[in-house]
């Protein structure tokens, strides 16, 4: 059974601060990771994808992956109220038969 | 623009009724998934399908069935709705080469 653990939060940060969202996983076969953002009442949407150890940056977002520690994180710099949402971590392995599994998500609140 | 369309955004049904939730994708994806999402429990996989006519049970298939007669359409069926099936239902299709999931807008079902 694949396990994906996330702190459900809520994580509350002031506007302009760095928000750090973390995820641990149990399946060593996981090769890459997705971060989805889900606004209240909406469906998840992909915001970041990382497949190699280290950092991947996209604008204000940085994903960090450490396969040895089975740990992936998402940093949001200069947090904005519009970043307030639930962030879902999802490991992935190549091949069409991989069953997507999600963490429970971390609720982020960015207050002005 | 890629799209996953769920037939009903909001439904109210009575206990014992048969409920059909329809999902259509226009991306020619082979893989499709049905999840339910409840507060504090995250996304839980009900059923998935790797291709037409194929279906596999997810983590919580009890009380549900599915149909995949055409590649673009994946239907979730509640044979006899119960109050504990009140939930948000999310359909997704997957791009096999990247693993990215594309979600529909969700169907919020209330069973009275």
Note the beta-strand portion of chain A: over 45%
Lateral strand order in the biggest sheet of chain A = 1-3-8-7-6
Rounded mean pLDDT score of chain B: 94
How would you describe the shape of chain B? globular
Secondary structure class of chain A reads mainly beta
Portion in beta strands of chain B:
over 45%
Global shape of chain A: globular
Kindly name the structural category of chain B.
Answer: mainly beta
The helical percent of chain B reads: under 10%
Task: Count the beta strands of chain B.
Answer: 12
Reported for the largest beta sheet of chain A, the result is: 5 strands, antiparallel
Please compute the radius of gyration of chain B using only Cα atoms.
13 Å
> Alpha-carbon distance between the termini of chain B?
37 Å
Q: Fraction of residues of chain A in helices? A: under 10%
Which stretches of chain B of 5+ consecutive residues score pLDDT under 50?
Answer: none
Low-confidence stretches of chain A: none
The total strand number of chain A stands at 10
Biggest sheet of chain B, open or closed, and with what strands and sense?
7 strands, mixed
Order of helices and strands of chain B: EEEEEEEEEEEE
């Amino acid at each position: 059974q694949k396990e994906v653990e996330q702190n459900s939060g809520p994580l509350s940060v002031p506007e302009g601060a760095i928000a750090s969202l973390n995820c641990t996983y149990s399946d060593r076969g996981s090769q890459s990771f997705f971060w989805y953002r889900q606004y209240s009442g909406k469906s998840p949407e992909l915001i970041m994808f990382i497949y190699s150890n280290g950092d991947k940056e996209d604008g204000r977002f940085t994903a960090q992956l450490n396969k040895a520690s089975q740990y992936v994180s998402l940093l949001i710099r200069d947090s904005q109220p519009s970043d307030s949402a639930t962030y879902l971590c999802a490991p992935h392995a190549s091949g069409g038969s991989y069953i997507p599994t999600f963490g429970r998500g971390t609720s982020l609140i960015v207050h002005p | 623009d890629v799209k996953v369309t769920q037939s009903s955004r909001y439904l109210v049904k009575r206990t014992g009724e048969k409920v059909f939730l329809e999902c259509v994708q226009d991306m020619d994806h082979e893989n499709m998934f049905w999840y339910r999402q409840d507060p504090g429990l995250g996304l839980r996989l009900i059923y998935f399908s790797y291709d037409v006519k194929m279906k596999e049970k997810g983590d919580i298939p009890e009380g549900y069935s599915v149909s995949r007669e055409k590649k673009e359409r994946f239907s979730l069926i509640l044979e006899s709705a119960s109050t504990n099936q009140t939930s948000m239902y999310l359909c997704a299709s997957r791009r096999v080469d990247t693993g990215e999931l594309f979600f529909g807008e969700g169907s919020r079902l209330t069973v009275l």
